[in-house]
Amino acid sequence: MRRSMKKAALFAAFALGAALPIAVASGCGKMMENDAATTVEESVGVAVLKQGSKGGEVKEVQRRLKLWGYYKGSVDGVFGAGTKAAVIAFQKKNGLTADGVVGQATYKALGMNDSYNLLVGGGSQSGGSGGVNGYSSSDVYLLARTIYAEGRGEPYTGQVAIGAVVLNRVRSSSFPNTISGVVYQKNAFTAVTDGQINLTPNETAMKAARDAINGWDPTGGAIYYYNPAVATSAWIFDRQTVTVIGKHVFAI
Predict the structure, then answer these.
(1) Least confident interval from 42-51, 59-68, 204-213, 221-230
(2) Is 77:83 a contact under the CB 8 Å cutoff?
(3) Is residue 22 over pLDDT 50?
(4) What is the predicted pLDDT for the residue at 117?
(5) How confident is the prediction for the chain on average, in pLDDT?
(6) Where in the chain is the domain with CATH 1.10.101.10?
(7) CA 167, 171, 177: angle at the middle one, nearest 5?
(8) CATH 1.10.10.2520 region(s) of the chain?
(9) Which has the higher per-residue pLDDT, 54 or 81?
């Protein structure tokens, strides 16, 4: 890669940093909905969570509760007694029914709006899909939002490639082990910094997210990508290039 590309850059597409806390403004209100009354167990990946539940949604609940000091255990995706106690403490603090069950009201108080909307909507949100290969519906939707925000002008293969980079990071020991952790890692994605992550993804981005989760990796294992026309950080140019798709260079 030519060093002259550095001179044309404006900002880095990626930078490493610590995890960025996710805003939870909706958790400040006092909501008295009874989570126990929400009894629907969704087969699409977003469900009412209770002791004994497992999966990505549980991991995200644990991550947020640990970040805010309610939970002291491992973020392992297993809803045990410790997770239940943390949920109860959180519910009490937020004026919810303190039953240790994560349903509509608790999802909303936690700021897990994708999970809340998918549960309330019976598993559909703006073209949302069910869980895929162990990832929840909200994981698929967040990945699609990332793809749309970062690469909606790229060819379809390039959009899948963006999703693949996120998933390669999830599998790497050098990055957070959840899609939300990777996406919201501090300074990792300009779309998070500038708010484009909140745009509603189109069906193309949804399909690209599903293809990436189903195992299509056009990047050959890349964990970085950048647009050389706008990237400035010297370190990104020193990464080993794997392939170029559209305007993005994919690297390891």
Answers:
(1) 42-51
(2) no
(3) no
(4) 67
(5) 78
(6) 26-110
(7) 90
(8) 3-18+139-251
(9) 81
Report the alpha-carbon distance of residue 235 to residue 9 in Å, rounded.
Answer: 13
- Identify the CA nearest to 128 among candidates 208, 201, 41, 213: 201
Of 115 and 176, the one with more pLDDT: 176
Question: Superfamily for 3-18+139-251?
Answer: Cell wall hydrolase SleB, domain 1 (1.10.10.2520)
Q: Per the structure block, which two tokens stand in for 177? A: 């082990």
CA atoms within 13 A on the CB side of 96: 29
Q: Which residue has the higher pLDDT, 174 or 7?
A: 174
Q: Which of 59, 82, 250 has its CA nearest to residue 165?
A: 250
CB 181 within 8 A of CB 189: no
Q: By CB neighbour count within 10 A (0-12 exposed, 13-18 middle, 19+ buried), where does 219 fall?
A: buried
Burial of 230 (C-beta count, 10 Å sphere; 0-12/13-18/19+): middle
pLDDT digits (tens, 9 = 90+) for 212-242: 999 999 999 999 999 988 877 788 888 899 9
CATH code of 26-110, in short, is 1.10.101.10
pLDDT, residue 56, reads 77
Answer yes or no: pTM beyond 0.70.
Answer: no
